[in-house]
């Protein structure tokens, strides 16, 4: 029976799996492949979560797009059409806006699930064909703050500067705003193995999640106060004489300024800000500093804030002060969320970056990439608007008037989502390339049906910096094309018949040349090596280079080889609770759904496990509201209102409510979230805003808010 070794299409673990052709007798319309374990791939060792096991369900024709759609100007409906007509219409829409309003009136919005080849060619398409600065992607909503902090402290951004296997051998892990037991279940084995050999796990999260249930110590700060907590722990490390002064002197700079900032955050002050008791803080500082090795791992709970970059840098300070960085078994890392969130930001999808993680404002970087592309460096546009800024201005005189969206669903995933929907509706032209008819695609003038993970070959880069290869197991159905083919055809219609191949290996070979010598150097990585070696870690500057599983062991990637402390200080969230909006809202994921849910909400098994939105409320808050389990609640912020049933649980703080963000419609959590941006990373403040919660009133009646 034919089998194909490949990888899961969902989270950044990029778990290995094996696909085999479906058995004879499979019902008509069902997926033609089934999932088997692939125990030889080291990240997951054969284990898969429910999303991975059911991934082929979205390959079924009934779950997906199978023909291009064009909006009929008379009826306003999306109607099936030919590929030729659809592509002609997209090219015309982009060209007309550029001719009428200038090149900056055209934009591209990509996705963290696109392969490296697609991300690379999409960036090239924007800058060479459209010659617009306006390209960004939904990874800006995922990894931007951790990436900015990583670059500032260490000189380069790779989510984990060590392989996941190192987690199992370290002495202590502080896990901040991360819930891998639900968001990437196969990764939990590494924390379990660590504890089995005496390592300690500290979880920082306002909710008692499934991950927190495994912790030796659970700290529950109020949402938006992780920065203060990190500073308080560093204060205790300094005050208790637990610094690694030799490491600080030999391998870092900026400690004295960081010390002064931390000493202004004494434990009692931090307890007032965070709600974490001083004894618990002292125990956390002791456990981490006393361990021979240790790691701090952050995720979106710490990063999706208007001060997310400073928050991550404060946690990095704790690693540096205790000598737990740049050494085997130690370091800071970010648990990347999206499947190719790492590679997607390395090769040109971000507004300010060129392939190889090069800066768009660096003349040498521009010259190198321009040579590979065969263009004049002066013709490459400069940096454009970040993701939310691009969406916020769409359809206005100051923003883009035509937009191509590839593999993203901002109508559900962006903050202040009702406003984003209005802006997309105001565009002169919107084209969407996607696997399914997402909520964003429903607004489009043209929808292009894209091939999926099992139907096309391409690389992604997982959270460890391991470049892996998804291999096609079957052809896409009639009527469906790959995104690479779409870009080739659009480029040709817009006057660029060369330079946009749709063979993924040919694209990857060009990517290798474009990245050569850059911070994310893929020059020595080939498809053959990735197949033979279970992936290759970047940087890998030559084909005889072994790759780099562990960064920073000899020096950090800064000009002088030293890591940088940051003199950061706590500041409140952009929006704190008040008399009108007295509660914190925080958002996140559930095990059975993924990101905006555009694909997972089409899988019956996953919908049975997580059928819809909900609002977690503490029993004391439920009592004040007079609400019982399952009753409909209204969650209102200054931006709008969401409606979802109550889920009463003692695992959340009494001053906080939680909503998952996977659903559209009345239960859309991002209707109420705050688009306030981190000034450095441009990350929106998804993880905390002020809300009012009340029982959903019958028509014409009002209910009093919880206070």
Automatic annotation (TrEMBL):
<dbReference type="Pfam" id="PF00384">
    <property type="entry name" value="Molybdopterin"/>
</dbReference>
<dbReference type="GO" id="GO:0046872">
    <property type="term" value="F:metal ion binding"/>
</dbReference>
<dbReference type="InterPro" id="IPR006657">
    <property type="entry name" value="MoPterin_dinucl-bd_dom"/>
</dbReference>
<dbReference type="InterPro" id="IPR009010">
    <property type="entry name" value="Asp_de-COase-like_dom_sf"/>
</dbReference>
<dbReference type="InterPro" id="IPR006656">
    <property type="entry name" value="Mopterin_OxRdtase"/>
</dbReference>
<dbReference type="GO" id="GO:0016020">
    <property type="term" value="C:membrane"/>
</dbReference>
<dbReference type="GO" id="GO:0051539">
    <property type="term" value="F:4 iron, 4 sulfur cluster binding"/>
</dbReference>
<feature type="domain" description="4Fe-4S Mo/W bis-MGD-type">
    <location>
        <begin position="1"/>
        <end position="63"/>
    </location>
</feature>
<dbReference type="InterPro" id="IPR006963">
    <property type="entry name" value="Mopterin_OxRdtase_4Fe-4S_dom"/>
</dbReference>
<keyword id="KW-0004">4Fe-4S</keyword>
<dbReference type="GO" id="GO:0003954">
    <property type="term" value="F:NADH dehydrogenase activity"/>
</dbReference>
<protein>
    <submittedName>
        <fullName>Nitrite reductase</fullName>
    </submittedName>
</protein>
<keyword id="KW-0479">Metal-binding</keyword>
<dbReference type="InterPro" id="IPR050123">
    <property type="entry name" value="Prok_molybdopt-oxidoreductase"/>
</dbReference>
<keyword id="KW-0411">Iron-sulfur</keyword>
<keyword id="KW-0408">Iron</keyword>
<dbReference type="Pfam" id="PF01568">
    <property type="entry name" value="Molydop_binding"/>
</dbReference>
<dbReference type="Pfam" id="PF04879">
    <property type="entry name" value="Molybdop_Fe4S4"/>
</dbReference>
<dbReference type="GO" id="GO:0022904">
    <property type="term" value="P:respiratory electron transport chain"/>
</dbReference>
<dbReference type="GO" id="GO:0043546">
    <property type="term" value="F:molybdopterin cofactor binding"/>
</dbReference>
């Amino acid at each position: 029976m034919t089998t194909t070794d490949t990888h899961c299409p969902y989270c950044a673990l990029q778990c290995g799996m094996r696909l085999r052709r479906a058995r004879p007798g499979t019902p008509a319309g069902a997926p033609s492949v089934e999932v088997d374990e692939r125990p030889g791939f080291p990240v997951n060792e054969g284990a898969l979560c429910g999303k991975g096991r059911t991934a082929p369900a979205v390959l079924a024709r009934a779950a997906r797009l199978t023909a291009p759609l064009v909006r009929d100007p008379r009826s306003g409906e999306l109607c099936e059409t030919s590929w030729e007509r659809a592509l002609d219409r997209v090219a015309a829409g982009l060209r007309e806006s550029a001719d009428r309003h200038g090149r900056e009136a055209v934009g591209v919005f990509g996705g963290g699930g696109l392969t490296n080849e697609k991300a690379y060619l999409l960036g090239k398409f924007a800058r060479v064909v459209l010659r617009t600065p306006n390209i960004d992607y939904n990874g800006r909503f995922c990894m931007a703050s951790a990436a900015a902090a990583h670059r500032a402290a260490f000189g380069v951004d790779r989510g984990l500067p060590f392989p996941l296997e190192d987690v199992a051998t370290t002495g202590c892990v502080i896990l901040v705003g991360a819930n891998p037991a639900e968001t990437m279940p196969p990764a939990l084995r590494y924390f379990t193995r660590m504890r089995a050999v005496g390592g300690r796990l500290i979880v920082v999260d306002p909710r008692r999640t499934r991950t927190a249930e495994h912790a030796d110590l659970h700290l529950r700060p109020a949402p938006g106060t992780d920065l203060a907590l990190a500073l308080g722990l560093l204060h205790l490390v300094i005050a208790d004489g637990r610094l690694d002064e030799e490491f600080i002197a030999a391998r870092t700079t900026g400690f004295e300024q960081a010390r002064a900032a931390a000493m202004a955050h004494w434990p009692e002050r931090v307890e007032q800000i965070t709600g974490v008791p001083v004894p618990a803080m002292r125990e956390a500082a002791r456990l981490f500093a006393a361990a021979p090795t240790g790691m701090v791992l952050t995720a979106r709970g710490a990063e999706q804030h208007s001060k997310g970059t400073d928050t991550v840098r404060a946690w990095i300070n704790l690693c540096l002060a205790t000598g737990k960085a740049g050494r085997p078994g130690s370091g800071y890392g970010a648990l990347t969320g999206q499947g190719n969130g790492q590679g997607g930001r390395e090769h040109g999808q971000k507004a300010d970056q060129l392939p190889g993680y090069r800066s768009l404002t660096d003349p040498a970087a521009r010259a190198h990439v321009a040579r590979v592309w065969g263009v004049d460096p002066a013709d490459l546009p400069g940096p454009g608007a970040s993701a939310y800024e691009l969406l916020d201005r769409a359809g206005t005189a100051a923003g883009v008037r035509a937009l191509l969206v590839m593999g993203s669903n901002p109508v559900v995933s962006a903050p202040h989502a009702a406003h984003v929907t209005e802006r997309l509706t105001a565009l002169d032209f919107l084209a969407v390339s996607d696997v399914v008819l997402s909520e964003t695609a429903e607004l489009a003038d043209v929808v292009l049906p894209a091939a999926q993970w099992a139907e096309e070959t391409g690389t992604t880069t997982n959270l460890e910096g391991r470049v892996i290869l998804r291999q096609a197991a079957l052809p896409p159905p009639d009527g469906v094309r790959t995104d690479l083919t779409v870009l080739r055809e659009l480029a040709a219609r817009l006057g660029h018949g060369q330079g946009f191949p749709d063979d993924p290996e040919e694209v990857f070979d060009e990517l290798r040349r474009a990245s050569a010598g850059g911070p994310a150097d893929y020059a020595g990585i080939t498809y053959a090596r990735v197949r033979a070696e279970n992936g290759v870690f970047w940087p890998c500057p030559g084909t005889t280079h072994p790759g780099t599983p562990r960064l920073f062991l000899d020096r950090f990637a800064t000009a002088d080889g030293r890591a940088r402390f940051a003199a950061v200080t706590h500041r409140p969230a952009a929006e704190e609770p008040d008399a009108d909006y007295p509660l914190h809202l925080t958002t996140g994921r559930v095990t059975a759904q993924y990101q905006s849910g555009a694909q997972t909400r089409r899988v019956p098994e996953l919908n049975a496990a997580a059928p819809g939105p909900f609002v977690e409320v503490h029993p004391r808050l439920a009592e004040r509201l007079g609400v019982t389990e399952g009753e409909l609640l209204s969650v209102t912020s200054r931006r709008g209102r969401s409606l979802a049933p109550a889920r009463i649980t003692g695992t959340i703080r009494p001053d906080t409510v939680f909503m998952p963000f996977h659903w559209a419609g009345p239960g859309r959590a991002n209707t109420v979230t705050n688009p306030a941006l981190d000034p450095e990373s441009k990350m929106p403040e998804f993880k905390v805003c002020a809300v009012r919660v009340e029982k959903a009133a019958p028509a014409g009646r009002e209910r009093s808010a919880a206070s």
